[in-house]
Prior knowledge:
By secondary structure, the protein is mainly β.
Amino acid sequence: MRWAGWILVMAGLVACGGGAGGGAGPGGGGVTPPGTDAGPEGGSDGGISTDCAGIVPDSPGSGYAFEVRTNAATDSCDLATSDGQGFIAARSGTVDWREFSAIGLGTGGSFQAPSALVPQSRGFVGLASDGNGGLVVESWDENGNPRFVSMGGSSGMVALAPVQGDGAVAFSADAAGLKVRALDGTLNETAAAIVPGTFTPRGGARDASGPVLALVGSGSTVSGIWIDLAKGTAGTPFPVGTATAVLARPLLGGGVVVRLDGHWSGLVQPGDSTLRAPPAWLLDGTDFVPARAGKAYALVPVSGSAIDLVSAQGNRCGAVTFAAATSVSLGLDGSVIGGSGPRGCSKIFWRGVLR
């Protein structure tokens, strides 16, 4: 697929906030330290745990403000992320995305993708129309140019999950069954498995040790299937719950947690069919991504401007508030993209603050 480029009429480059004092301007923020009482968050002397050292930045520092132009006054800019170089992709409509540089200037890049993106070390991976009513996995560079397209499009529902490093895991289904494919950074298939049966893919995640948990559904019913891509084998489907919105995320130390309709419902280990209690630090109404070079989790709220930081060992280290933002997201390079305004199209970008 090819789409014409676009020119951003005006992009504001504004130094917002700044300084170690938490940022005095609109792009500044504040840091909330954890409590000093002993317990899960604290050390034995009443201070923070040693695994929290260096996790919470002293200040978010300065940000860059810019506007995302939309095609219609009702379009939302609810999704945004950044790649490993700091380039930003922000949704500007139902399927439209626009790209910005690491300081909020428009690159002239735009493309179309109907769902959330998987950021890469360079560029972004997402779903795109194949022109025949189906979907393929495609990647785009910082100028909106397609880089690679995966083979094997699907006319049914397709879901993507991020992996460690570049690439993605793609879930699709057809008459042959559920197909799970591991794609590398050039979107070539490196491993795959097919599970016979009738399935609707809802999502999934790849465990730190390699197996993939596929989430499938029939109506609102959600089931899980563990798949070993190295062997091309799959386990027996097991019940997960009921939901219209489904999300799965891998933990740094192993295991996958499942969120159903905004509620973190359970933790499941590779090969297991029993959901156990999710980690106590995992809050409903948040998503999470690795931060601080894999030493912590960043808990990103569905709405709000504060990101909680939790060590890889599960201790809450503190929170960072990004002033002037009503929503936040975290990019691959540790950058935070804040949104404000009625449609979230006013953005503030703090580059690498949680790298």
